[in-house]
Every structure is written in structure tokens, then in C-alpha cells.
Amino acid sequence: MGQESGTHVWLVLWKASRAVERNALASISGLGIGLSDFAVLELLLHKGPQSVNWIGRKVLLSSGSITAAIDRLEARKLVKRTTDAEDLRSRIVKLTGSGRKLIERAFAKHAADMEETIAVLRPREREDLVRLLKKVGLWAESRAEG
Fold it and tell me: Which of 6, 60, 98, 120 gives a 20 to 30 Å CA spacing to 138?
């Protein structure tokens, strides 16, 4: 096996990421929401009610973008904002009943679609890929921060 340049590894990673993302977008396209809104709903499904700022950090959205996403979801009555009892300046976002129904159904389909997308990898290959991607991601993040 030959030495792969950093540029080549980045290019392969970028192309693979885009292809997997296209599959993810196709998986949720029937919902009438984008990937960032899906990510917010999925996070609330699995983590429960959370502050707007925490959600934004976890789904990698800026302050303005997370507010816009929550506004869209609230307008569709999929989430509800309440005041944080411990910090009156903070807003807590939680799923509504219809939001929970939508994301439970959507996540089940999405999980099956992603399983099909990754089916080419054996279990050990998946473990290796996740381990290596985390290693590169953490290293790149540390370099970007300092």
C-alpha cells in the first residue's frame, strides 16, 4: 500500500462525505424539512428538552442559524420554547406531540436508510472507520483552535 498524501485523503474524505450526505438528504426529503431542522428534532428526541444555545453547539449551527431553525420548527408546531426556570434569560426547546411523532417515524426511516448506505462495510471496518475519523477530527480540531 502506497503513501497517500494529506491532500488525497482530504479529497477522498470530502467526496465520501458528500455522497453519504446526499443519501441522508434523500432519506429526509419527504419531511419538508432540511438537514439542520432534522438534526435539531433528532437531538431533542434522543437528549430531551435542551437550551437553544446547547442545541446550536451540538448541531453545529451559529446563534442566528439555530434561532431561525427553532423558529421554523415552532411555526410548524413541532417544537415549543419555554423559559428555563433556573436561568430566566435562557430558553428551553422541547418536542411537541406532533414533533415527536414526526421525528420518531422519520428517524426510523433515516436509520434504515443510513444502514443501507453503510452496508458495504463489515462491522470491524465500521469500528475502524469511526475510530480513525474521530482521531483525524480531534487532531484537526485541535490544530484549528490553536
Answer: 120
Residue 10: inside a domain, yes or no? no
| pLDDT, tens digit, 9 for 90 and up, residues 31-77 | 888 889 999 999 999 999 999 999 999 999 999 999 999 999 999 99
Long-range Cβ contact pairs of 29-32 (< 8 A, separation 24 or more): 31/102, 31/106
d(CA 15, CA 48): 33
Round the CA-based radius of gyration of the chain to a whole number and report it: 18
Which domain covers residue 54, as residue numbers? 33-145
Angle at 35 between CA 34 and CA 38, to 5 degrees: 90
User: Hey, what's the cell of 78?
Assistant: 413541532
**CA-wise closest residue to 105 among 48, 43, 58, 42:** 42
Residue 105 within a domain: yes
Contacts within 8 Å (CB) and 24+ apart, 87-91: 90/51, 90/52, 90/53, 91/51, 91/52
Number of compact structural domains in the chain: 1
